[in-house]
Amino acid sequence: MDAVKILSELQFKAVRSSGAGGQNVNKVSSKMVLTFDLPASGSLSEEEKALAIQNLTARLTTDNLLILNCDEDRSQLRNREIVTKRFLDIMTNALRVPKKRKPTKVPRSVIEKRIREKRSQSEIKQSRKRPEI
C-alpha cells in the first residue's frame, strides 16, 4: 500500500457540524467527511482490494465506498488531519495478513503429568472413605 498515492484518491467534503459550539456551529462547516472508492482505487492491487473488502465489510456501503466522519475539533483543518490518520490506520489494519497458525501436538510429558495428578487426586479421595471391615 502506497500511502501517498492513496491519499491523492481521497475525497473530502466539509459539512456543518452538530453539537457544542454556539453560533459557530451554524456558520462554519468544520465537520469533514472522507470518501474512498475502494473498487476504483488505482493504488491498490486486486489482491489488496479483495482483502480490504473482506476485512471492511461492516464499514463499507453497498457500492464498496468507505465513508468516515470527523467533527471532534472546531477546526476544519484539524478534523481533516484526524480523519486522514484514522483512514490510514483502518487501511493498514485491513490489509494486514494474519499469520498462519501452526497446529501443535500436546507433549507427552503434559499428558503424563495430568494423568499422574488425576491418579493422586483419586488416591486422596479414596483414603477419605470409610474403611471396609
UniProtKB/TrEMBL annotation:
A Gene Ontology molecular function term of the record: translation release factor activity
* Record GO biological process: rescue of stalled ribosome
Skewed-composition ranges (Basic and acidic residues): 110-133
Region entry Disordered, spans: 99-133
Keyword Hydrolase among UniProt keywords: yes
Keywords of the record, alphabetical order, are: Hydrolase
UniProt KW Hydrolase keyword: yes
Q: Which InterPro entries match?
A: Pep_chain_release_fac_I (IPR000352), Pep_chain_release_fac_I_sf (IPR045853)
Which domain of life does the protein's organism represent?
Answer: Bacteria
Q: Which family does it belong to?
A: Belongs to the prokaryotic/mitochondrial release factor family.
What's the protein name?
Aminoacyl-tRNA hydrolase
Origin species, per record, is Flavobacterium magnum
